[in-house]
Structure formats: structure tokens, C-alpha cells
Amino acid sequence: MGTLNFKFAIVSDLHIALPHTIWNHPKRFHLVEVGIPALELILERLSGLDLDFLLLPGDLTQHGEPENHAWLGKRLAQLPYPTYTIPGNHDVPSLLANDTSIAWADFPHYYHHCGYENPEKLYYTREILPGVRLIALNSNQFDEAGKQQGCLDEEQFGWLETVLAEAEEELLLVMVHHNVIEHVPGQSRSPMGRRYMLDNAPRLLSMLRSARVQLVFTGHLHAQDIAYDRGIYDITTGSLVSYPHPYRVLEFRTDSGGQSWLQIESGRVESLPDWPELNQVSREWMGDRSHPFMMRLLTEAPLNLSLEEAEPLVPSLRYFWANIANGDAQFEFPHFPPTARRFIESFSATDGEGNLAAIDNHVTLKLSRQPSRIKSKI
For position 88, which CATH number holds? Predict the structure, then answer.
């Protein structure tokens, strides 16, 4: 692989919505009104960093509107560095085009300059720098009834097997919208959490481990979190239009002895001209809408509290998800019943040994040394 040194940024779940396309709903969590000005502010900040590329891990638009895709595609084409996109569930909510959304198969046509040289597929691979290969996956599929699913299809798995087998002296970076490693306790088993997980994540992870892939970049969860499992980091980035309106700047470096690190720094959009107290407003916005969410968390598996048991606890959890979304959350609820206390406090950020630690926003990951790859079937 040689000595690699490069810098890139991640902005996730933009939910771009031109003003005349914005729709309102009393339970809407996303402040889509700030998407465009927040993106412009971040792009201004990134302009002086000499980036090698930018990753956008899906949910680029509010609900797949053609106008919003067209606006973003045009804006990304103006950037001085390459940008690579993948679709999120909001970008292709329908298999076929309807009154408000593009068709599933239309997505690459809006982002042909963002990795999609072949408009016939919603996934791709590119050598984005000498010795660095991006594998961009599409985790949005539809069942026979037309219901959207978060998974990879068989054709994509077959393609991926070939790509991994042919990659030799390259650093492989994988980008996919849905999470592949749990970012909150029991995420893959929870009725609330598993919708953010790739349905066939274990199969994908097995393939990636065999190819010695260490870095996967995801979105969808709207939280700043870095999860690790048996050699693979799943680095998920919070949403541009949800508290705390984050983005990441990452620097990969390799020393003369072949040891590699990934330094991660996270920024925030704390205010905008029309939103001088954006972070405070969006934190309260999330808190105002937290009650149904927290009731479900307490009354569904694994806690299964009764409504009478859960209701007195909910006011203390007004900012629970906001704190998780911010990353590096530390929870203490000594007044909760023991079982509920253990469960809620288990959402605190911890290191690999279970110790409380700030691991989600500003951290340097020491990567495993990689033996040379040999072309062979996985």
C-alpha cells in the first residue's frame, strides 16, 4: 500500500430542501429549513483545508424531489475537490417516480460527476487517489410489495466479491447509508434501532473482514458515533439538519514504518444568519418531540416497562437522544429503578474496555498493519 497521507471531509444526511419544496408535519424532527445555508457554511469552512475529497453518505434530499436532487448535483459540481455520493432512503423512497420523488433508478443521473460513471447501477467503486479505493454501496432495495428495505441485493454482493478479490495494494474505504455495526445497545434487535441497520450486515462484515477492510462510513442514524467490532470501524456522522448539525474532517496518515492512523475532528454549525441560536433551538426542537420516542424506548423490548412505570421517567429523558446525537454522551440517572438505570446508562460512550470515554468526535484511530493482499476469491 505504501505511504499514504490525505485529508477528506464527511457531511451526512443533508436532507436538502429548496424553500418551496418544504413540507411541514407536527412530528417532523428535521430542521430542513437550515439545510442549504448550513451546507454553504460548511463548504466555506472546508474551502481552506486543501481537501482531497468529500463523502456524502446518503439522504441528500428531503424526500427525493427532482428539484432538490438537481440543485445539489449542480452545487457539488462547482466544488474544487471530488465529491462522492450514495443514495439514502430519503433519496429514493419509491421504486418508480411519482408526483414528488424521482425513481430509484434515476439517482445516478443526478450525480454522474460524484462517482456514478455508470448510470445503470446505484453502486460503484473508484480509485479516488493513488493507492486508495472507494467502494460505494447502495443499501436501498424494495420487496415484491414495493416496500423499501435496508439491505444489499445478491447482484451487489456478487459485484462486491469481485471488487474485493481484485483489490491488491490499495487502502479500501467503504461507504454505505445504513449502519453495519451497532451504535447503540441492542440496535440490531430493537424494533426502534434495527431500521437503521443494514439487514444483511453480518454477511457484509464477513466479506470486509476477509478483505481486511477497516473503515466504513455510514449515516442514517443522525448521531455522531464511532463503533468498532473485530477489526472494523463504522464511523457514522450526524445529520446536517438535526442537532448538533455536525460534519467531520478526517486525515489519514502513514509513518515511515508503515503504521497508519486516522485522525478525526468534528465541527458544528452553531449559528446561521437567520438562526443565530441554531444549536439551542434545534436541541429544544428535538426535546419537544422526544416524549413518544422515549415512551417507546422504555416500553418496548428489552425493558418492557408498563406505561405507568415509564411515564414518570420520561421527563428526565427530554435530551436523551440529543445527547446521543451530539456524541460522547455520559449518562447518570441514580433516581431511576435499577433495571431502567442500567439500561439507560449503557448508552454512554465507552472505549473498547467498557470505560467511559470521549470517542465519537475528536479521536485518532490507530489502524492495524495490513499484510499485502493476494488476488483470490473470498
Answer: 3.60.21.10
pLDDT tens digit string along 249-263? 999 999 988 899 999
Please check whether residues 163 and 305 belong to one and the same domain: no
Which cell numbers hold the place of 117?
460513471
Residue 284 is assigned to a structural domain of this protein: no
Measured CA to CA, the distance from residue 18 to residue 44 in angstroms comes to: 19
Residue 100 is given by DSSP the state S
- Could you tell me if residue 374 is inside a domain? no
Sequence-distant (6+) residues with CB within 8 A of 160 are 135, 137, 152, 204, 207
C-alpha cell at 94: 419509491
Q: How many folded domains does the chain comprise?
A: 2
Please tell me whether residues 40 and 158 are part of one structural domain: yes
Q: What cell numbers appear for 169 in the block?
A: 495494494
Three cell numbers at 62? Answer: 428531503
- Contact between 176 and 141 under an 8 Å Cβ cutoff? The reply is no
pLDDT tens-digit readout, 29-53: 899 999 999 999 999 999 999 999 9
